[in-house]
Specification:
The complex is a heterodimer. By secondary structure, chain A is mainly α. Chain A is built from ten helices and no strands. Chain B has one domain.
Chain lengths: ~325, ~500
C-alpha cells in the first residue's frame, strides 16, 4: 500500500516537473563537448592533473572551519579555567578562619589599637575615616593617585575627540530637549543630591561616609544634570580645564599636607596640626580637608569617565 | 638604624617629589617641552639622592637598613617604607635607566606624539617612576598593591600614547592581561591578611612561620602563594603569560618600549622577590614547591622567548621577545631559591634594566635612519648612517649573548655560579647554554645586516642629536662598567639581600 502510494506520488511529481517519458520525436539540444585537459585552468604546480596535497586540503578545511572550531575551543577552555578557579577559590574560602570569630588571626593588636585608641589618636569619630586618612593615609594617597592616573589616561586617549576630525565618534547620547519628566525630576533632585554629597563629604570624620562615598554622590548630580539639560550646560561650569585644575589642586593639597604630616611623624618633630575636640565639625586634624580633596577627585573623575565614554569629551 | 638624617628621609622625599611633579605637570604650559624637561630634571635629582642614600648606607662598611614610618604611627598601625643597600641601588638604576630612556628618545618622542599628549606622557612617566620607587621601598603589602595599580594604568597608557589602531589594540590587550594579574594579586593579599592578620611584611613572615609549624590553613596559604605568584608573573611577562608583551613593546613609541621593557617589568619582578624572601621566606617557598615551579617556568621562558624572537622580522618585536627570554633568566635565579640565586637575579634585573633601554633606543635610531621602517632587511647599512645607534645595538647584542666585558656576561656568570650548589645544576647550565646560543642566533644576523653596505639603496643620512649621542655614550659606559666591574656590585647586592 505504502509502495503503491509512493509510486503514484512519483508519477504525479514527474508530471508536474515535466520529467515524464520523452516522446521519441523530440530533438534534444546538442551536448556540450567534454572539458579537455588543455582547456582546464593550469594549476601552479601540476599542468595536467592536480590532486590537492594533504597540507592544502588541511588549509582549505582550516579556512572554512578554523574560526568556528577556535571559538568553540576558546569558550570551552575559558569555561574550564573559570570553573577550576571557582572551585579552587571556593575550597580555599571554606578553609579560611570562620567569620567574626574572636580567635581569628586578624583580631590582633593592630585592630585592637584602631578600635580602642583610634578615637583619641586620630580625633575622628568614624574609625574607618581615621584608619584610611590618618593611620594608613599613604595608601589612600595612592588610591587617589590611581583615580588621577586613570582620569588623565582616559582624557589623553579619548579627550578632544568631539572636535577632532580624525576620529568621529558616533554620538551615543541623544540629547532630548523636550524630556519634561526628566527635567522636572532633575530640577528637584539635583540640589538635594548635591546637599547630600556635601554632607557625606564634610561629615566623613563624624559619621559613615567620607570622600569616596560623597564624591560618588556628587558625581551623580553632575551626570543627572548632563542627562537632563545636555552636556553643554554642565560644560559651562565644569569643563576639561576645570576638571584638570580641580583634580590636580586637590591631589596637590593632599600630597603637601600629608607630606608635612609624614615628615614630622617620621622625624619625631612637633606637628602644628591641631586634633580639635572629638565630635566637632572642625576636628580630627587633616581628615576633614583630606576628605574634601578626595571627594573633589572622585566626583570629577567619575563624571569625567561618564562624559568621556558617552560624548568623547568633558 | 641610620644616624644620617638626610639619608633617612631620601626614600620618602624621592617618592613624594615624583608624585608632586606628576600632579603639577597638567597645569604647566606645553610650549618648549617644559613638562618633559621637568620630569627629566626631577628624575635626575632623585637619581642623585638615591646615589647619596647608597653611599650613606654602604660607606660605614656594615650592612645597614632602616624603616621610615609614614606618619605619626609606628609600623603595624601605619604604613612604612624600608631602605637597604639593595633598594638604594635598584632605585638608582631605575632612575638612571628612566632618565636615559627619556633623553635618548627625546626627538623620536616629539615625532611620534602630539604636544597635548606629550604633556600627559610626562605625567605618566613621573607616576611610573614614583610607583617603581614605591614598589622598591615599600614594607607593606597593601601599599605595594596600590602602587602596582598606578604602575599598571600608567604603563598601559604609555603604550596608547602613540595614536593608531595597532597601539590601541596592544594597550587594550595589555590592560586586560594586567588587570587579570592585579585581580589575582588582590585576592591573594586578602587571603594572606585573613590568615596572618597583618599587612606589614616582617609581621606576615612571623605569622606564616607559625602557620607552617602548626600546619594550620595549609591549603589557603598554598593557594594565596600560587595566586600572588601567578598575578605578578602575568604582569612581569613570565613565559606562558607573555603573549601581550611583543605587541605592547613592539608597537609603542621608542621611549615607551624602553621604559616598559627595561623598568616596568622589573618593578613586578622585584615585588615577587620581596614577597618570596621577606613575606614567605625561602624555606616556606621550598616547602610549598613554588621554587621548582618558578625554575621550570624560567627555563621555559629562556628557551621559548628566544625561539619566538627567531621568527620575528620586525626588530622591535624581536627585542621585545628577547625581553621574555631575559625575564626567564631572572626567574631562573629566583627559582634557585638561595641567597646567591636571588643576588644573581637582582644583578640581572640591573643589567637588563640598563641594556634593554639601550637596545630599544638603538633600534629606534636605526629605524629612523632607514626611513621609519622596522623590518630587519630595511635596516641594511644603517650602521654607517647612525654609528651611535649601531654601536648601541652591537653592544646590546653582545651583552645579551653574554660576551665577556659586556654587561650580560656578569649576570650570566653569577647565575651560573649560583646554580653550582643546587640540585638543578644540570638543567640550569643546559638552559643557560641553549639560551645563549639561541640569543646569538637572532642577534648576530641583526648585527650583520646593519653592518652590511647597502649599495643598491643606501640609507639617507639623518641628523643625530647631541642628546641622543650623549645618552648612548652613557648607556655604553654603564654597559662596560657592569661587564668589567661586576664583582663589587654583586658583593653589594649580596649584602643587600642579606639584610632584605
Amino acid at each position: 500500500m505504502n509502495d503503491e502510494l509512493k509510486s503514484i506520488w512519483l508519477k504525479f511529481f514527474n508530471w508536474v516537473m515535466g520529467n515524464g517519458p520523452r516522446p521519441e520525436n523530440e530533438v534534444l539540444p546538442p551536448e556540450p563537448p567534454p572539458d579537455l585537459p588543455f582547456t582546464q585552468k593550469p594549476h601552479d604546480k601540476f599542468s595536467r592533473f592536480h590532486e590537492a596535497t594533504l597540507k592544502e586540503r588541511y588549509n582549505q578545511w582550516l579556512e572554512i572551519h578554523g574560526l568556528h572550531i577556535f571559538s568553540i575551543l576558546y569558550s570551552a577552555l575559558s569555561i574550564l579555567t573559570c570553573l577550576v578557579i571557582v572551585v579552587l577559590l571556593l575550597a580555599t574560602v571554606a578553609e579560611l578562619p570562620p567569620f567574626g570569630h574572636e580567635r581569628n588571626p586578624a583580631n590582633n593588636e593592630v585592630i585592637r589599637r584602631y578600635v580602642e585608641h583610634g578615637w583619641h589618636e586620630t580625633g575622628a569619630q568614624n574609625i574607618v575615616a581615621g584608619l584610611i586618612l590618618d593611620y594608613r593615609a599613604f595608601d589612600t594617597f595612592g588610591e587617589s593617585s590611581v583615580l588621577f592616573t586613570a582620569a588623565v589616561s582616559v582624557l589623553m586617549i579619548l579627550g578632544n575627540s568631539r572636535s577632532s576630525k580624525k576620529y568621529k565618534f558616533k554620538q551615543l547620547h541623544v540629547y532630548r530637549n523636550d524630556d519634561t519628566i526628566l527635567r522636572g525630576v532633575a530640577v528637584m533632585a539635583i540640589p538635594v543630591i548635591l546637599m547630600m554629597g556635601c554632607v557625606v563629604v564634610i561629615n566623613g570624620h563624624l559619621s559613615a561616609g567620607g570622600g569616596f562615598a560623597g564624591g560618588a554622590i556628587l558625581s551623580t548630580a553632575l551626570i543627572l544634570c548632563a542627562n537632563a539639560y545636555g552636556f553643554e550646560s554642565v560644560r559651562r561650569f565644569f569643563n576639561e580645564r576645570i576638571f584638570i585644575v580641580s583634580s590636580s589642586t586637590a591631589l596637590m593639597i593632599y600630597a603637601l599636607s600629608k607630606g608635612y604630616s609624614f615628615f614630622t611623624g617620621a622625624n619625631q618633630l612637633h606637628s602644628i596640626i591641631p586634633k580639635g575636640v572629638v565630635g566637632n565639625i572642625l576636628s580630627a586634624g587633616l581628615i576633614l580637608p583630606l576628605n574634601i580633596c578626595v571627594g573633589l577627585i572622585v566626583a570629577g573623575t567619575l563624571y569625567g569617565f561618564y562624559a568621556l565614554f558617552s560624548e568623547g569629551d568633558i | 638604624m641610620i644616624d644620617n638624617m638626610v639619608a633617612f628621609n631620601i626614600p620618602f622625599v624621592s617618592i613624594f617629589m615624583l608624585m608632586i611633579a606628576a600632579i603639577i605637570t597638567p597645569l604647566l604650559p606645553r610650549k618648549k617641552r617644559i613638562p618633559e624637561k621637568l620630569s627629566c630634571l626631577v628624575i635626575f635629582i632623585v637619581a642623585i639622592l638615591s646615589a647619596y642614600l647608597l653611599y650613606a648606607l654602604t660607606s660605614s662598611g656594615q650592612d645597614i637598613s632602616f624603616n621610615f614610618p609614614m606618619g605619626h604611627f609606628p609600623a603595624p598601625w601605619g604604613n612604612e617604607l624600608r631602605a637597604g643597600p639593595l633598594e638604594a641601588v635598584l632605585s638608582l638604576v631605575f632612575c638612571v635607566a628612566m632618565l636615559l630612556s627619556l633623553t635618548g628618545n627625546f626627538s623620536s618622542t616629539a615625532e611620534d606624539i602630539p604636544a597635548s599628549r606629550r604633556q600627559i606622557f610626562s605625567v605618566l612617566v613621573n607616576l611610573l617612576t614614583a610607583s617603581l620607587l614605591a614598589l622598591t621601598y615599600t614594607n607593606d603589602l597593601f601599599t605595594a598593591y596600590v602602587f602596582i595599580e598606578i604602575n599598571t594604568i600608567a604603563a598601559c597608557a604609555i603604550v596608547a600614547v602613540k595614536e593608531g589602531p595597532a597601539t590601541t589594540r596592544a594597550a587594550l590587550r595589555y590592560l586586560i592581561m594586567s588587570l587579570v594579574g592585579s585581580g589575582l594579586v588582590m585576592i591573594a593579599i586578602c587571603l594572606l591578611y585573613d590568615l596572618t592578620g597583618h599587612l606589614l611584611m616582617q609581621n606576615m613572615h612571623g605569622a606564616i612561620q607559625v602557620l607552617m609549624i602548626t600546619r594550620e590553613y595549609a591549603m589557603p596559604l598554598t593557594v594565596s602563594l600560587g595566586l600572588v605568584t601567578t598575578g605578578l608573573a602575568i604582569k612581569s611577562a613570565l613565559y606562558p603569560f607573555a603573549a601581550w608583551l611583543p605587541d605592547a613593546h613592539g608597537t609603542s613609541t621608542n621611549a615607551s618600549s624602553a621604559i616598559l621593557s627595561g623598568l616596568v617589568l622589573k618593578g613586578h619582578v622585584f615585588t615577587i622577590i620581596k614577597i618570596f624572601y621577606r613575606v614567605f621566606g625561602l624555606e616556606v617557598i621550598h616547602a610549598l614547591r613554588m621554587d621548582t615551579v618558578i625554575f621550570i617556568l624560567g627555563v621555559a621562558a629562556m628557551i621559548m622567548g628566544s625561539v619566538h624572537a627567531l621568527k620575528q622580522n620586525n626588530i622591535k618585536r624581536m627585542i621585545a621577545w628577547s625581553s621574555v627570554a631575559q625575564i626567564g633568566y631572572i626567574f631562573l635565579g629566583v627559582g634557585l631559591n638561595t641567597v646567591a640565586g636571588i643576588a644573581a637575579a637582582c644583578l640581572h634585573i640591573i643589567v637588563h634594566a640598563c641594556v634593554k633601554p639601550m637596545l630599544f633606543t638603538a633600534a629606534g635610531g636605526l629605524s629612523n635612519a632607514a626611513g621609519h621602517k622596522k623590518e630587519l632587511h630595511a635596516l641594511m647599512g644603517t650602521f654607517y648612517v647612525n654609528r651611535w645607534a649601531g654601536m648601541g645595538l652591537i653592544a646590546g647584542a653582545c651583552s645579551m649573548m653574554g660576551i665577556p666585558a659586556f654587561a650580560g656576561f656578569a649576570s650570566k656568570l653569577s647565575l651560573t655560579l649560583a646554580s653550582f650548589d643546587n640540585k638543578f645544576i644540570v638543567w640550569a647550565l643546559a638552559a643557560l647554554a641553549t639560551s645563549s646560543v639561541l640569543n646569538a642566533l637572532y642577534y648576530v644576523p641583526a648585527v650583520i645586516v646593519i653592518l652590511t653596505h647597502n649599495k643598491n639603496n643606501p640609507p639617507k643620512p639623518a641628523p643625530v642629536t647631541k642628546l641622543y649621542k650623549f645618552s648612548m655614550f652613557v648607556f655604553l659606559m654603564i654597559n662596560f662598567y657592569l661587564g668589567l666591574f661586576c664583582v663589587p656590585l654583586l658583593r653589594l647586592i649580596t649584602r643587600g639581600v642579606n639584610v632584605l
